[in-house]
Amino acid sequence: MSQSTAEVVADSLARAGVRSIFAYPGDPIIELMERSRRRGIDVVLARREGSAAFMAEASAMATGLPGVCLSTLGPGSTALVNGVAAANTDRVPMIALSGQIETSREQYFTHQVIDHKLLYSSITKWAGRIESSAVGTTMRKALSLAQAERPGAVHLTIAGDVSKAPATDTTFVPPPAMAALSTIGVVRAPGAPDPSQLLAKAKRPVVLTGIGATRAGATDALVRFADEIAVPVVVSPMAKGVFPEEHPMFAGVLDMACNQLLWQLLEESDLIIAAGFDAVELIKPWRIAAPVLHIDALQHTDQIYASDVECLGDVGAVLDALRESWTGQPRWPTKDVAAHRTRLKNAYYRGRVEGHLNPTDVVDVVRAAMPRDAIATTDVGSHKLLVGQGWRTHAPRGLLMTNGLSSMGFGVPAAIAAKLAFPSQPVVALVGDGGFAMAATEIRLAAARGLPIVFVVFVDGSLNRIELKQMAQEYPSTATRIEDIDLVGLATAMDCDGVRAESTAELEKALIEVESLRRPLVVEARIDPSQYESQF
Ligand SMILES: Cc1ncc(C[n+]2csc(CCOP(=O)(O)OP(=O)(O)O)c2C)c(N)n1
Ligand SMILES: [Mg+2]
């Protein structure tokens, strides 16, 4: 029996391990939604396409599998943009699909017709279209491209008439997964030493690791490397948890709160071992004089830092090989790294106002209330800088954030996607009041699905991260003050529980029963933002 084109799309996604599609409907995608449903895929209705795309992104961040979002033509496809760009910039595998008007009218008709290839080309690895005569191959190409290093987004257009047409290319074969690369390639500039010599010469090397190490599952290799050579490990924000934060060589998170101390550590080192570090997370230009030993699946073609020696392959395998060839003495006395960590801790708590609910108090109280294996998400703003540094993350993929595109509105939908992916794991979202306002209606979806997620909102009445920059220039707060919402009332109206906390004690009390929630809980944490002011 012949399969329709939409059936082949749904079948390909299911066979690639996709269990959920985050969607917002429209006429041309009804067929694809129905075929996905019949194929056993959960078609999840977000409240808007923008959040559907963030859900798909977070689902991929949490699981490592491609995240899938689906929109209709025209306004649906334009509303999807931010989350697709985020997946691409955050290096997360995504298949974004949009419907389109039927093929016979696409070239001349104007109502709701957007050229998806033009729209999506600059924010994806590829913007293609599905044809009945090439659907199986196209799906293999899309899934291969989205997942291959560096992962990112692929956008596919499927016209309404094409969905129902019988497919003549039905042979979808899942592409090979990015398993450990089996050999190590070394690329050297003329006259540059080999990687082992470079490492041997260094007296104060520092490892800077990132999302490439998370994708490679390099945690154990990083630990072996840090143990044997005694090297501090700095972690990028999106890779939090890839190196154990309780390890004596853990040296903190780059480009979050206390940034100066992290850069100082790097500046004082004489070799940066960039192990799966992706410069997309850097906020400021690279200004370290020490050489960089680049270790990744791909060369550092961005040239954000200059590396004359590059080891290409599986990040963990390269680290193991370097360690095995190492004959030197351990490099860093543990007490030096401990002293750095103490400075970091002191700087992190700087500006606390005794007796008030400070942002770091919220991080501490929520962390203590949530089980160790909780998955956290965060949004974008001043709160993220503290969460990124201070939220104790015990496993890779344990804190989901966007730090490539850094788009607000991510934290709430991301938490929903994480909980759908891992129903038995506790999930908490740590978001600002601005970012929460962008995505708040999604909590109704969490309620409808019976997802006991904790949404903690840092309420400061401000788009603080930007307001602080206005203050620094002595400008008035234009368009950066945000009106209060009664979040307890909002939660109730959305079939969630809500609680307000104005002190540490109230917050502790609000979270006492966090392990036996039956539905989502919105916590209105009314913070004193003056700690942000003294830190940023
Ligand atoms: C979609 C989007 N719009 C604007 C920005 C710029 N921006 C970065 S942080 C921020 C303020 C965030 O406010 P809030 O969510 O309340 O967090 P806070 O800084 O107060 O902790 C803004 C407007 C952004 N990153 N993303
Ligand atoms: Mg705020």
Give a brief description:
This protein is α/β, with parallel strands linked by helices. It is about 40% helix and about 15% strand.
Task: Please outline the helices and strands.
Layout: H1 5-15, E1 20-23, H2 30-38, E2 42-45, H3 49-63, E3 67-71, H4 75-79, H5 81-89, E4 94-100, H6 103-106, H7 116-121, E5 126-129, H8 135-147, E6 153-159, H9 160-164, E7 185-188, H10 195-201, E8 205-209, H11 211-216, H12 219-229, E9 233-235, E10 250-253, H13 259-267, E11 271-275, E12 292-296, E13 309-312, H14 315-324, H15 334-349, H16 359-369, E14 375-378, H17 382-390, E15 399-400, H18 411-421, E16 427-432, H19 433-439, H20 443-448, E17 454-459, H21 464-472, H22 487-493, E18 497-501, H23 504-510, E19 521-526, H24 530-535
Parallel strand pairs: 1-2, 1-3, 3-4, 4-6, 5-6, 8-9, 8-11, 9-10, 11-12, 12-13, 14-15, 14-16, 16-17, 17-19, 18-19
Antiparallel strand pairs: 7-13
Magnesium ion is lined by residues 381, 432-434, 460, 462-464.
Question: Could you characterize what this model shows?
Answer:
By secondary structure, the chain is α/β, with parallel strands linked by helices. It is built from 24 helices and 19 strands. The strands form 3 sheets. Strands 7-13-12-11-8-9-10 form a 7-stranded mixed sheet, sandwiched between helices. Helix 2 (30-38) links the parallel strand 1 (20-23) and strand 2. The longest helix is centred in the middle third of the chain and has 16 residues, at 334-349. The relative contact order is 0.11. The mean pLDDT is 97. The structure holds thiamine diphosphate and magnesium ion. Magnesium ion binds at residues 381, 432-434, 460, 462-464.
